[in-house]
Each structure stands twice: as C-alpha cells, then as structure tokens.
Amino acid sequence: MNRALLREAVEELGRRKLRTLLTLLGMIFGVGAIVAMLAVGEGSRREALRLVAELGLDNLIVESAKVDNEALRELRARSLGLSLADADAALAVVPGARSVAVAKEVRVNLLAAGARTATGQAYAVSPAYAEHGGLRIAQGRWFNDEDGATTAPVAVLGARLARELFPGGDALGRRIKLNHVWLEVVGVLAERALSQSEFQGVKLGLDDERLFLPWETARARLRFTPIEDEVDVLNLRLQPDASPQAAAPVLQELIRQRHGGADDWRLIVPAGLYRQHQQTQRIFTIVMASIAGVSLLVGGIGIMNIMLANVLERRREIGLKRALGARRRDLVEQFLAEALVIALAGALLGLVFGVALALAIGALAGWSVAWSPLVLVPAVAACIAVGVAFGVYPARRAAELDPIAALRSE
Predict the structure, then answer these.
(1) The domain containing residue 282 runs over which residues?
(2) Does one domain contain both 345 and 285?
C-alpha cells in the first residue's frame, strides 16, 4: 500500500472530521483499555515476584502459631513447640534441603541509644538467616558462628532503626540497650522498601525497623517464659534443582509427627503463594481482556459503519472511477487504506490514553504499573487487525457496485 493511497485516505477522512472522530473514540478506548490492563497486570506480576523474593522461592517456612496463653497450655500437653531439634530434623530428612535458619522474636520493653529511644522489633536469629531472608549489609558485618558460640553481645540494625537511634549515621561500634542488655552495633542493613506489608495473607518482614542479634546470645542474656516456643520461625532453604512442591509434604508430615499432631504451627510455601497469585491474576486478566475486547469490537463496528456510509455517499465517485478504468482491486485498496488510517490513528491515540489511564490507576489505587513490548505490541496489533477486518466488507461492497447504476445515483 503506497504513500499516495494513504495520503488520499487521510484527505478523504479529513472531509468528514466529526464522523471520523466519533469512530476513532471506539478504537482509542479499546486500545487504551488493553494497554492499561496489560500494564497493571505486568506491574502486578513483577511486584509479586519482588514480594515473594522476600520470603524466598526456594524456601519452606514453618511458623509457630500465635494463640492465647490458655490455648497454648493445652497445646503444650502434646507438643513442646517449634524448636532447634525440629530445624535439625528438617535439614536431615527433607529431600533437597540445603541449609536451615531459625528466628525468635524478642519482646521489646526498651530500645535505646543513650538518651534517644526508638520503637522497633527485635529478633534473635541464626547466622544463615541473612542469606535466607535476602538481607544485605550496608555497613559493618553480619553475625558469624563465633558470635553465637561466645554469646557475644552484638547486634545488626535495620536502616531506618539505625537512623532513628543514630541520626548522625555513626551506628557502627556504638552501644544500644535492648531491655536490660547492652549490645554493640556491628552492622547496619541496606534499606529496602516494600509496597505491601503482606503477600497472599503472609506478613512480610519489615527489616528496616528491626534489630537482630545472635540466637544464642538472646537465649543466654534475655528472659523468655518456659511456655514459649524455642524458635518462632524455621526457614528451610532447598537446593536450586529441588522441588518445593515435593519437599513441602515431607516437611509437613515431619513436623506433624514431632508435634504429636498439635496444631501449633503452620507451613508456608512461597512458590505456592506465587502460583496462587498468578492464578488470581490470570482471572483478572481474562475479565479485563474481555471488557477491552468488547470495547475494541465496538470500535470495529464503528469503522464498518463509517465505511459503509462513505460507500453510500460516494457512489457517483466510485462509478466514475470504474468508468475511467479503475479496477475492483483499486477500490478495495482505497477503502482498506481508509480503514487502516483510522485503525493506526486509533492505536496511537489509544496508546497515549492507555498510558495515562494506567498511571492514573497506579496513582489512585496504589497498584504497580510496568511496561514491556509485550504490553504495547498486542494492543497495536489487535487494533490494526480489527480495523482492517471490519473494513473488508465495506471495501468489497464498493468494488462490487455496478458502474452504470452508481453514475446514475444522486
């Protein structure tokens, strides 16, 4: 299709500006809806990957149940709760297990550095916890085995907590007081902001506001009630080629047997949470795609409507061209060129509208928005395909007109 034909199509449509504009609106809304839907869907997918990475796709997580003291006493008649022995057993029994980390929440009554106090959470953890939780050190170091063996009074601070306790940024080597115990700051974590505090009903770690200390140090220097679980979180990391779906039932049965069937724990499989989120996202995409498709279909019907009206109004022009030697193929190409121009204009304007709509949705609803060629190409391709498809019938009607009857028409 040459440039002269496209230029002629633009000029012809320009003579009927209002009709052309009304036809374009259907295509603009259809393409815009597709672009916005795909952009929000892509943003949701990437955000889900980022959030589930906080839990670790290769991890299996066992958490102690949060129950009141009365229910906990009843549970303790059958189970001693989550423990280091459970962690060792999981590492030995679960197929594909690579390493295990544990964490125990410490009740914070006082968190201070000199005269400055702060609010935050404290966790006693094993050295492997940083790797399992994706924690990165910005300053100083993380704990090592020697810190635990000597019950060293050391701590690592989250980025925001470090800024709150030490506004000057000189936290390393300084001393802080956790309840009645003095600790030396040996590391500060790199800051990482999360858009959500939970994913698929599972709470994510707000590590920027946390203090971490060796598990052995906490057990030796801080007070815990005998009824408490020895550890609150057991995080089992699998080999890269291991299947979380195959390992999870083994771990579940192991903990169930070791706890005498007591319901004082729960198993979290991050990979399963991600698949669940993707299934929900697919349903959302299908619904939104159906709505966008209907809008695009309405736009296509609008193109057919304007093209049929153009054929009816230009019967004499068509008859004259046929009388002067124009072939049926020439007429088909002419009217298809007009349909293509409408579709291209609708696609370009729809892209702009879709980007604006996606950004507005992201700003108002707080959703993530992401762009990729897979977001833009399908929308443009669908618009052009619909425009050309709905332009074929009017083009054939124009080509099939009898030249003599067309010249006689008013």
Answers:
(1) 3-51+276-408
(2) yes
How far is Cα 218 from Cα 80, in angstroms, rounded to an integer?
19
Q: Considering only 149-158, 215-224, 392-401, which range has the smallest mean pLDDT? A: 392-401
Do both 334 and 251 map to the same domain?
no
Burial 231-250 (b: 16+ CB within 10 A, else e): bbbbbbbbeeebebeebbeb
User: Are residues 193 and 110 both part of a single domain?
Assistant: yes
Burial class for 396, CB neighbours closer than 10 Å (0-12, 13-18, 19+): middle
Residue 61 lies in a domain: no
HEC per residue, 119-148: CCEEEEECCCHHHHHCCCEEEECCCCHHHH
Quote the tokens at residue 256: 């169930």
Question: Which residues on neighbouring strands pair with residue 106, listed in sequence order?
Answer: 122
Question: Which of 209, 232, 263 is at the close of a domain?
Answer: 263
How many CB atoms are closer than 10 A to CB 80? Answer: 17
Q: pLDDT tens-digit profile of 67-126?
A: 777 777 777 777 888 899 999 999 999 999 999 999 999 999 999 998 899 988 999 999
| CA gap 401, 392 in Å, rounded | 15
Angle of helix 17-55 relative to helix 270-313, nearest 10 degrees, comes to: 170
19 and 148 together in one domain: no
- Token match 């000199």: residue? 114
- 71 and 198 assigned to the same domain: yes
Among the residues of 202-327, which ranges form H helices?
Answer: 215-221, 244-258, 270-313, 315-323
pLDDT tens per residue, range 244-267: 889 999 999 999 999 888 888 889
